[in-house]
Specification:
Protein name: Probable cytochrome P450 12e1, mitochondrial
Helix content: 40-55%
Strand order of the largest sheet: 3-4-8-5
GO molecular function, one term: iron ion binding
Organism: Biomphalaria glabrata
Family: Belongs to the cytochrome P450 family.
Low-confidence stretches: 1-33
Bound molecules: protoporphyrin IX containing FE
Mean pLDDT: 90
Cofactor: heme
Number of strands: 12
Length: 514
């Protein structure tokens, strides 16, 4: 009964006469039950001034409320407490926010062949002014699809990331060595996470160690690192509505972005040219393999793809793969620090499988079940992205019993069910993801709730690399160090910039265990 009520409410697209329950479900093949969906205008949410263009968004934030764009997730939670699992808001444009997993699933089922998620407008503006073509996360429609298909097979195969595992083990060793430097400030530690993610993903995007953990890192690499940080800061300014005018004139956010993006562009293209020379040598000497597992080499050997396309793509992957992995690795280690009993269980698993010095390999990784459960639990507790995900559908849809016309941005607010649909949601319990002896999951949560990398054909292209790197950071740290916290660093508040991070930089206390 409950199930068919849920089906009635959620599953069917709007037809001319409203959503129609298929005959099969109505119990009689000749009988069609017509369900009238409520109109878009009836969707709950703040009314009046809150629905005015521009003003409606401004009044959601300080000084009118306690929220800022960085605490948007808290704001959406409060709205859900007040209005229920579906609401309508002005967040720039008018958006619909859904948090019922059935609705979330329904949206993904209707996203079509070319799912639409907003790109980053600042990058798009920069590309337009400099005559660069947009890359993966910016493109839409068939152009997006063509590029995505080209790299799907290279990035999403089971062993795509494993190819880099040996080299990334060495990066993680350097990272853990650096964590043992005396008198690290919370900001120094944050910087080390960023270096770890940058160094790890540069192996993939530029076939290079940047040397960021060296005693005297290369000048270009440091310039590259600082330029990336600055670009990310400007992107965050733009996302949080602090740079409304860059589209029309070169405001200070745009100018800072432009200067730093030019640095990234120049150094990236030098790295790509270097790799191109190596590939050409191999092709000329007949030693190049068609099955080349190195992403950059394989793309550079492909006929009909320009160096510019490859450079833009690699920059897009590098941009997508630095802050995201750095922040989520840090939050994972923070959860382990705050839950010493779970940390100990995980360390025991790692030492049993790898010993105190062994590298992470494809084989050992497959045995680390508690590690995988612990990371999933960390994603559940501290959802990586503030709003979850976003889609703009090509078709009308019924969600929560309301009509939502095609073209309305729909926020899939997974962070909420990630808390409300679990027992003891504030406790870090990796065990809930382990299978019990009868091979069923202990917690039978809806599969559409914890989706840290999105879902469907437009999900995160770098997810295999992201989890591999986070596993490496945790494994190598736990093999050697106890992760604790200085007393001033116990934190439970998180903000989004745009990935999750503790409100204040964390003062970890790393102590050697062997
Ligand atoms: C913990 C780390 C990461 C998280 C939480 C994360 C999360 C996400 C999410 C939620 C999306 C949107 C998916 C959707 O719309 O369904 C996305 C897209 C994307 N991510 Fe990640 N990501 C991470 C790491 C990475 C890494 C390491 C890379 C690069 C190697 C990367 C590159 C991208 C790109 C290029 C897109 C756009 C894909 C497209 O539009 O087709 N991400 N990511």
């Amino acid at each position: 009964m409950l199930k068919s009520a849920a089906l009635l409410k959620h599953r069917y697209r709007v037809s001319l006469f409203g959503p129609t329950l298929p005959a099969k479900l109505s119990g009689c093949p000749m009988f069609k039950v017509e369900v009238k969906a409520k109109p878009f205008s009836d969707i709950p949410g703040p009314k009046g001034i809150y629905q005015w263009p521009l003003i409606g968004t401004l009044v959601l934030y300080k000084p009118f409320t306690l929220y800022t764009p960085e605490t948007l997730s808290d704001l959406l939670n409060e709205m859900h407490d007040k209005y229920g699992p579906m609401l309508k808001l002005r967040l720039g444009p008018q958006v619909v926010v859904v948090s019922d997993p059935e609705d979330i699933e329904n949206v993904y089922k209707n996203e079509g062949k070319y799912p639409v998620r907003h790109g980053l407008d600042l990058i798009h503006t920069y590309n337009r002014r400099n005559n660069y073509t947009d890359s993966l996360s910016q493109l839409q429609g068939p152009e997006w699809h063509a590029l995505r298909v080209l790299i799907n097979k290279r990035l999403l195969k089971v062993d795509s990331a494993l190819h880099y595992l040996d080299q990334q083990n060495k990066v993680a060793d350097d990272f853990v060595r650096a964590l043992q430097t005396e008198k690290l400030s919370p900001e120094d530690i944050e910087d080390l996470f960023f270096r770890f993610a940058s160094e790890s993903i540069a192996l993939v995007t530029f076939n290079k160690r940047l040397g960021l953990f060296d005693q005297n890192p290369d000048k270009d690499s440091l310039e590259f690192l600082e330029a990336m940080k600055s670009c990310l800061l400007m992107i965050q300014r733009a996302i949080s509505g602090k740079s409304l005018t860059h589209k029309w004139w070169r405001n200070s956010t745009y100018r800072t972005f432009d200067t730093n993006r030019n640095i990234l562009q120049r150094i990236s293209s030098e790295h790509v040219n270097e790799a191109k020379a190596l590939v050409e040598d191999q092709i000329n000497s007949g030693t190049f393999s068609e099955e080349e597992p190195n992403l950059l080499f394989s793309l550079l050997s492909e006929k009909g793809i320009s160096n510019e396309t490859v450079t833009n793509l690699m920059m897009s992957l590098y941009t997508g793969g630095t802050d995201s992995t750095a922040k989520n690795s840090q939050v994972f280690l923070l959860n382990l620090a705050q839950n010493p009993d779970k940390q100990e269980l995980l360390r025991r698993e790692i030492l049993d499988v790898l010993g105190p010095d062994g590298p992470l390999t494809a084989k050992t990784l497959s045995k680390l079940v508690y590690l995988k459960a612990a990371l999933k639990e960390s994603f559940r507790m501290n959802y990586p992205t503030a709003i979850g995900n976003l889609r703009i559908l090509p078709v009308d849809i019924v969600l929560g019993g309301f009509k939502v016309p095609a073209g309305v941005p729909i926020i899939l607010f997974n962070p909420r069910p990630a808390r409300t649909h679990f027992e003891n949601p504030d406790q870090f319990v990796p065990e809930r993801w382990l299978r019990s002896e009868d091979n069923t999951k202990k917690d039978s949560a809806h599969s559409m709730i914890v989706l840290p990398f999105g879902h469907g054909p437009r999900n995160c292209i770098g997810r295999r690399f992201a989890v591999q790197e986070i596993y490496l950071a945790a494994v190598k740290t736990l093999q050697r160090l106890h992760i604790g916290l200085e007393p001033d660093s116990v934190t439970s508040r998180f903000v989004y910039t745009p990935f999750v991070q503790p409100e204040k930089p964390v003062h970890f206390k790393f102590t050697r265990i062997n």
